[in-house]
Amino acid sequence: MGEISTFGLELFSSSQIFYKGRARFINLPATDGGHTFLPHHENVIIALVPGTTKIVTETGEEITAVTGSGFAEMINNRVQVFVHSAEHPGEIDINRAKEALERAEEQLRQKQSIAEYHRSKMELARAMSRLSEAGKRK
């Protein structure tokens, strides 16, 4: 049986290196839905939105992360992901996430500038992703 094909993967948030190593697969929340990178994917740069990122490591371990907005690039069988935030679902404070969801919903109900509206929509999407993944761990 042949060796399993992998690619280099680095996932950076604004405060940490969330993952660095070899991977078989990564699925990211992109602006057009989800985007999956497999080994030897064509070179590309994509925009990311808040949501759930799934990684399968070289050893077959599955890692789930709740990630914020950012971008990812695949160049020469190496993926680099740069996001505002990346959290393991088990690390999410559910009460704090619910409060953030309520704040974002209230901000969307109020009259806002276009920039504020888009920022509130992103905060709402992030809060919903965090609550969804944290709820799966209970």
UniProtKB/TrEMBL annotation:
<keyword id="KW-0066">ATP synthesis</keyword>
<feature type="domain" description="ATP synthase F1 complex delta/epsilon subunit N-terminal">
    <location>
        <begin position="9"/>
        <end position="86"/>
    </location>
</feature>
<dbReference type="InterPro" id="IPR036771">
    <property type="entry name" value="ATPsynth_dsu/esu_N"/>
</dbReference>
<keyword id="KW-0375">Hydrogen ion transport</keyword>
<feature type="coiled-coil region">
    <location>
        <begin position="91"/>
        <end position="121"/>
    </location>
</feature>
<dbReference type="InterPro" id="IPR020546">
    <property type="entry name" value="ATP_synth_F1_dsu/esu_N"/>
</dbReference>
<keyword id="KW-0813">Transport</keyword>
<dbReference type="GO" id="GO:0005886">
    <property type="term" value="C:plasma membrane"/>
</dbReference>
<dbReference type="InterPro" id="IPR020547">
    <property type="entry name" value="ATP_synth_F1_esu_C"/>
</dbReference>
<keyword id="KW-0406">Ion transport</keyword>
<dbReference type="InterPro" id="IPR036794">
    <property type="entry name" value="ATP_F1_dsu/esu_C_sf"/>
</dbReference>
<keyword id="KW-0472">Membrane</keyword>
<dbReference type="Pfam" id="PF00401">
    <property type="entry name" value="ATP-synt_DE"/>
</dbReference>
<keyword id="KW-1003">Cell membrane</keyword>
<keyword id="KW-0139">CF(1)</keyword>
<dbReference type="Pfam" id="PF02823">
    <property type="entry name" value="ATP-synt_DE_N"/>
</dbReference>
<protein>
    <recommendedName>
        <fullName>ATP synthase epsilon chain</fullName>
    </recommendedName>
</protein>
<feature type="domain" description="ATP synthase epsilon subunit C-terminal">
    <location>
        <begin position="91"/>
        <end position="132"/>
    </location>
</feature>
<dbReference type="GO" id="GO:0046933">
    <property type="term" value="F:proton-transporting ATP synthase activity, rotational mechanism"/>
</dbReference>
<dbReference type="InterPro" id="IPR001469">
    <property type="entry name" value="ATP_synth_F1_dsu/esu"/>
</dbReference>
<comment type="function">
    <text>Produces ATP from ADP in the presence of a proton gradient across the membrane.</text>
</comment>
<comment type="subunit">
    <text>F-type ATPases have 2 components, CF(1) - the catalytic core - and CF(0) - the membrane proton channel. CF(1) has five subunits: alpha(3), beta(3), gamma(1), delta(1), epsilon(1). CF(0) has three main subunits: a, b and c.</text>
</comment>
<dbReference type="GO" id="GO:0005524">
    <property type="term" value="F:ATP binding"/>
</dbReference>
<comment type="similarity">
    <text>Belongs to the ATPase epsilon chain family.</text>
</comment>
<dbReference type="GO" id="GO:0045259">
    <property type="term" value="C:proton-transporting ATP synthase complex"/>
</dbReference>
<keyword id="KW-0175">Coiled coil</keyword>
